[in-house]
Amino acid sequence: MKFRNSALLTVTLTAAAAAQFAPPQPQDVRTFGAGVQRTMSLLAGATAAKRNTVRVMFYGQSITKQGWWRAVAADLRQRYPLADLVVVNRALGGFSTPLLKRTIESDLIAWYPDLVIFHDYGDEPDYEWMIRQIRSRTTAEIAIQTDYYTWLPEAGKPAPEADVKRNAWHDKHCFEWLRDLCSRYGLEYMDVRKPWLDYLTSNKLRPADLLSDGTHMNAHGEFLLTELVKPHLRYDPSLPDTGWHGWVRDLVVGKDVEWKDGRLEVEFEGNRVDLMSSRVGRQPYARASILVDGKRPSEFPELYAVTKQSDLAGADWPFVIHVGANAPLQVEEWFLKITETDAGNKVVRFEVRGSKTGPDGAGISTERFVSKSGRVVLEPEDWHLQRAFDYAKVLTPVGAETRWQVVPLFLDIYEPPRRDDATREYPLTVAQGIRNGKHKLVLTKETLETPQIEAIRVYRPPLEETPQAK
Fold first, then answer.
1. Cβ atoms within 10 A of the Cβ of 188, count?
2. Helices (H), 68-123
3. Pairing between strand 348-354 and 358-364?
4. Phi then psi dihedrals of residue 124, to 5 deg
5. What residues does CATH 2.60.120.260 cover in the chain?
6. Going by CATH, does the domain composed of 15-232 fall within 3.30.930.10?
7. According to the model, what pLDDT value does residue 1 have?
8. Which 8-state DSSP code applies to residue 44?
9. How far apart are the first and last CA of the chain?
C-alpha cells in the first residue's frame, strides 16, 4: 500500500462541488457517542469560570495524517468554545499495526489523552494489543474508525479476484471484528464504511472519485470523512453508563481529604495522581515533599518516559522507532550519531551518548544493541533508515545525528505553579505510569504556609495492565 509522510492541508469542498453532490444521508445517531461520554461531558461542562482541559489525539497512519482531522478539531472548538481543548495528531504514514505498536509508548501512553480517535490497517492481534495498552495504561476513551471503500466492482466488467478478496476481508474486519472489539472494550464504533458506500451509491460515484491515488482521499473524500466522524462526538447524558465515571475522580481537599499536623495522606487506586492547585485567591509560596508508597516518585523506574527520536531527513520517521532500556533511566538527553553507512542505509554503524551518562557505546544496526549503562537498547527490526531511503531516496549520511529525551512523569516536591489564568487548570502530575492498583500518597509541608491544593485527581484505567512490549 502506498503511503504519505506529510500531512495534507485541510481543504474545504468548493461550493460548486458541494452543490453538485448530495450531503451524507442522515443516520440514526441515537447510540452515537456512547463510547466518548467522559470526554464530551468535560467539553460540555466547561464554563467561563472553569475551562476544563481536554486532550484529544488522532492516531494511526497516513489516512489519519490527512487534513480532515483539523476540520473535526475546528468543529469541536466551535461547539465547545469554553473548553481548554488540546488536539494533536501523531499518526505515522505507512505504520500499520505491527509498526505502530512499537511507537505507542512514546507517542500516546506518555501523553495520556482523554480521547483517541483511531484508524489503522494491519493484523488484528496487534490492533487489539494496542487497544489493551491504551485501556490498561491510560483512562483515554477510544473512537474506532472503520475503513472506507477504495474499490467496488463495476457492472459488465470482470472483478479481479484480489480486489474481491480484499473487499471481503475489510467487510468482515469492519462490520464484525471491529464492531465486536468496540463492544468488548466499550469503545466508540464509528462506522464509515457503510455510509461511505451509501454516499457513493446515492450520488452515482465511484470510489476513485473520492480518492487522490487509489488509497488516500482527495478534498471531496476528506469532506465526507469529516461529516461522518463529527456526529459521533456528541454529548448526550441519556446514553447508557459505560462505567467511565470511576476512571478519573477528584478528591476535594477539605471535604474528601484533610491536612492534619502538616500532612496530607491519601489512599487511592489507579496509575496516575495529580495535584490540582487552587484557582481562587492569592497563591502563597508553599512547599511540600511528596511520597508514594513510602518512596519519592523519582525512585520508581517506570515513571521515566522516553520521547520519540527526531525525524529523518526526507521522511517523518525516526532513525529507530523504539528505544528500550535494561537499566533504570535518569532525566537526560540522548544522542545517536551515524559513524558509517552503505549506499542504501542497509547497514549502519553508530554511537550513542547521554547528556549525563556520557559516551555509552557503539553498535551496528543489524545486531541488537545494549549500551554500556543499559539505558539504551535498540532492536534490529526497529531501525528505519533503510525503509526511509527506499521511500524518499535520501541517504542519511555519516555524521547525521538524532536525539531523544528521558523525561520525568513524576514530582518529588510540590511548589505552587505559575497561574496566568484563574479559569484554567494547572495540574501537577505527582506520578504517572505506576502500577495500576492501590497506593498511598503523603504530602508533608516544608513551609509555614500550607499548599493551596484544591483537589487530588486520581486516574484509574479500566483494565489490568498487559505486557508493555510485544
1. 25
2. 68-79, 97-100, 104
3. antiparallel
4. -70, -35
5. 247-300+410-459
6. no
7. 37
8. H
9. 24
Low-confidence ranges of the chain (pLDDT < 70): 1-20, 22, 281-282, 313, 466-470
User: What is the per-residue pLDDT across 59-68, written as a single tens digit (0 to 9) for each?
Assistant: 999 999 999 9
Closest CA to 330 of 296, 289, 375: 375
Cell, residue 251: 478528591
Sign of CA dihedral 239, 241, 242, 247: positive
Looking at every residue in the chain, the average pLDDT score rounds to 92
DSSP designation for 107: I
- DSSP letter, residue 104: H
Beta strands 288-292 and 413-414 are antiparallel
Give DSSP secondary structure letters for 263-310. Answer: EEEEEEEEEEEEEEE--SS------EEEEETTB-GGG-GGGEEEPPPP
Which helix H or strand E contains 457, and what residues bound it? strand 453-459
Domain 247-300+410-459 CATH assignment equals 3.40.50.1370: no
**Which residues in the chain are classed under CATH 3.40.50.1110?**
15-232
For residues 263 and 442, is the Cβ–Cβ distance under 8 A?
yes
Task: List the 358-364 sheet strands across, edge first.
Answer: 304-306, 401-408, 332-341, 348-354, 358-364
**Looking at residue 315, what is its pLDDT?**
80
pLDDT of residue 464: 84
